Amino acid sequence: MDFAGAYAPAHLTFLLQGFLVTLEVAFISIIFSFIFGIIIGVIRYTKIPGISQIFAVMVETIRNLPLLLIIFFTYFALPEVGLKLDKFYAAIVALVVFESAMLSEIVRSGLNSIDKGQIEAARSSGLTYVQTLWYIILPQALRRMVPPIVSQFISLLKDTSLAIVISLPELMNHAQIINGQNVNYVIPIFILVALMYFAVNYSLSLVSRKLEYRQR
Amino acid sequence: MLRYSILFDHWDMYLQGFTNTLKASVLALIGSLAIGIIIAIFRIAPIRPLNWLGAAYVEFIRNIPLVLIVFVFFVGLPAVGIRLDPFTAGTLGLMVYTAAFIAEVIRSGILAVPKGQMEAARSSGLTYLQTMRYIILPQAIKIVIPPLGNQFINLVKNSSVLGVIAGFDLMYFGDLISSETFVTFDVYIFVALFYLVLTIPLSLGVGYLERRLAKTR
């Protein structure tokens, strides 16, 4: 094991570049999947006939597939039907598709956990259905959803590493490139990479725990 | 229109991948249940250093990617002279990763049993271990089954990382078939169907158990 060689400044900057790509892909995917997750979750909650069922089938199918397959499919199979995305966007599209499905389920069960009496009270005080959802139900449900949503974001950040199969230049990919130079770098590099992921994810989970605590 | 001939011509390969995916998932489930139970006991046992050890395992493993853990087994161990075949390395990686989640499921199941049960059993003369074995665990198991089912679904999906290290699972054979036929789209649609054959019934089963448990509460 060669710690000094593995942690040479050039390697550290290379890992950091990879980590920036990881964070960038994760950040963009988090924003989009949060938006889509809420929209799909609300659509399924409101039980609009037809549309609600279509989304149910889509969500259940996607949730029951491996994310790796979706990433692979987006990058390698979609070009066959004329949709060519570069690595960066293919990774983001795949992550957003998968995580939106996961988040929509969190949103839906969060909405379902709000007492139906709230809707009746709001409606009978003259609010429309959409107003009731927007001003009464969603704000309360969102507060309850914070902990599961944050742990879904942690999953998302970890899952960006799956994009190594399409050689997206993220942290795991860069780690493997360094490992390829010298066998003695492998263990030191894995320790450092694990600590990098851990630092970000653990901080996120601490934030989530604090928010959860404040609700009580 | 999908080219179904790909499915029929390569049925053996699909089936072999499917079998290996199932095998990796079941083996990893058994292993991670064993490790998970031990870690959960560490976390709730009335011994401080064990609590810390259990918490450290869970927090560390849960916050790093599965791909990294699998690579530690597949690339890291050979670097210190231990060589594993891809299937074994992948399955061990899945085991270590899933154990952290299973430990949390079991721990919260045990904590969900009312505290009075422990106190009553202890004061009637049972030892701590006897209380766990005869009073707490039988009640916790019922609570724990649906979330364990969810972990198994995740395990089946996560077993696809074997494909990254050529571990002879469905993803790997998908890769093989598409490099033979020069078709990607259809090949992976069929791979997806094989995964759904496993995960959809599991999801429905877990959903049923959850609803039944909610009713008995």
Automatic annotation (TrEMBL), chain A:
The chain crosses the membrane at residues 20-43, 55-76, 186-207. Belongs to the binding-protein-dependent transport system permease family. GO terms for cellular component: ATP-binding cassette (ABC) transporter complex. One of its GO terms (biological process) is amino acid transport. The keyword RNA-binding does not apply. Keywords: Amino-acid transport, Cell membrane, Membrane, Transmembrane, Transmembrane helix, Transport. It comes from Parageobacillus caldoxylosilyticus NBRC 107762. It holds the Pfam family BPD_transp_1. This is Glutamine ABC transporter permease protein. The keyword Transmembrane helix applies. InterPro entries: AA_ABC_transptr_permease_3TM, ArtM/GltK/GlnP/TcyL/YhdX-like, MetI-like, MetI-like_sf. It is found in: Cell membrane. It is a multi-pass membrane protein. NCBIfam families: HEQRo_perm_3TM. One of its GO terms (molecular function) is transmembrane transporter activity. Residues 19-208 form the ABC transmembrane type-1 domain. Gene3D superfamilies: MetI-like.
From TrEMBL, chain B:
Pfam families: BPD_transp_1. The keyword Membrane applies. InterPro entries: AA_ABC_transptr_permease_3TM, ArtM/GltK/GlnP/TcyL/YhdX-like, MetI-like, MetI-like_sf. The keyword NAD does not apply. It is found in: Cell membrane. It comes from the Bacteria. Its main location: membrane. One of its GO terms (cellular component) is ATP-binding cassette (ABC) transporter complex. Gene3D superfamilies: MetI-like. PANTHER family: GLUTAMINE ABC TRANSPORTER PERMEASE PROTEIN GLNM-RELATED (PTHR30614:SF7), MEMBRANE COMPONENT OF AMINO ACID ABC TRANSPORTER (PTHR30614). Belongs to the binding-protein-dependent transport system permease family. This is Glutamine ABC transporter permease protein. It comes from Parageobacillus caldoxylosilyticus NBRC 107762.
